[in-house]
Amino acid sequence: MYTHFQASQTVEMAVPKPNLIHHYLRQPKRLVKALVDPTRLEYLGEEIYRLKMRPLQFMMFSLQPTVDLKVWIHDGILNLKSVGCEIRGIEYINQRFSLNLVGKLYPVELQGITHLKGQADLEVKVELPPPLWLTPQPILETTGNGLLKSVLMTVRHRLVHNLLSDYSHWSEEQLGVGERQPQSNNAVSSMEWL
């Protein structure tokens, strides 16, 4: 029995000291490290990163997705797309699972103020194992969609807290205004999924 889950998330935030944001967005490696816990990230080369997510609980199963993400810049837009996925923990699901993640982040001028706007769409298709066949479809969909939404909310939370902080430190370094201070891990400690 194949089931389809999906979630979307948008973000918009004002950028302090926006004069260097276009240069900052040309550094995908720096951006990825601001969005994802660096200890769970591996650079594979050619704009592709492997993200080992924390275990996720879906119904009675504990799953650990590993997602390969391509991150690149085109026309000033940071693009992100999943190019591979593996589910560790349950081989049955791993062989019957597909994940599609597409995201964009770009600067725009709104009423004279530079903002970063972005959107991420996450879709999962999976053939559920027999123990879940008797679970009503609305319960499965609500649970699955909620899980995907929580993953995207975590990414959004990191984006709002870590990316702007990293950009602020980086832009000060570029302008020679101050020395970089160690980044606070307060926002990271509350992350459950990434």
How are the elements arranged and paired?
Blueprint: E1 2-14, H1 21-24, H2 28-35, E2 41-45, E3 48-52, E4 56-58, E5 61-74, E6 77-88, H3 91-94, E7 97-110, E8 113-127, H4 137-175, H5 186-189
Antiparallel strand pairs: 1-8, 2-3, 3-5, 4-5, 5-6, 6-7, 7-8
Describe this structure in words.
The chain has 194 residues and is of the alpha+beta class. Strands 1, 2, 3, 4, 5, 6, 7 and 8 form an 8-stranded antiparallel sheet that branches.
In short:
The chain is α+β, with helices and mostly antiparallel strands and 194 residues long. Helix content is 30%, strand content 42%. The chain has helices spanning 21-24, 28-35, 91-94, 137-175, 186-189, and strands at 2-14, 41-45, 48-52, 56-58, 61-74, 77-88, 97-110, 113-127.
